[in-house]
Amino acid sequence: MKSWHEFSLEQTELAELGKQMFLQTRTHVGLAFLATIRKDGAPRLHPISLVFSRDRLFVFIPSRSPKCADLKRDGRYALQAFPPADNDEGREFYLSGVAICVQEPSIRQDIISEAGINVEQYEVMFELFVDRAMFTQLVARGTPDEHPWHRIWPTTDQ
Predict the structure, then answer these.
(1) What is the structure's pLDDT at 129?
(2) Which of 4, 90, 98, 113 keeps 20 to 30 A from 80, CA to CA?
(3) pLDDT over 70 for what percent of the chain?
(4) Nearest-angstrom CA–CA distance, 130 and 128
(5) Which superfamily is assigned to 4-153 in CATH?
């Protein structure tokens, strides 16, 4: 499991592709679909805002949200970037890993200040750690030879 910073040092190009996919309209705040695991084991999917700050990746989730309860109980997540509006190349970016609740008030305030976001007091902050990343792009789109090309980290399943 790696922090975003550790992942980006090890996989600079892949991390940059992912960051571009997540941060389509703002410098520190992006959009994605977050998948969590419900108490009964079924998947749950939500759109979510995410925050890049200090080379780390965070989400703020209302404490009463089902996805907050999911992450507190079982921190495993999957994150899929929103597709770009001009997605002629069929680009996608996916992460999975574990979300860890960050309870240190000074870290929370630093992240909020740097990102320039409004966060309610009742929102819980999680740092997203990465164990898998995948960038996909369509090759020869619109032709009979169309096929996906993947860049996956790690290169083998662990």
Answers:
(1) 98
(2) 113
(3) 98
(4) 7
(5) Electron Transport, Fmn-binding Protein; Chain A (2.30.110.10)
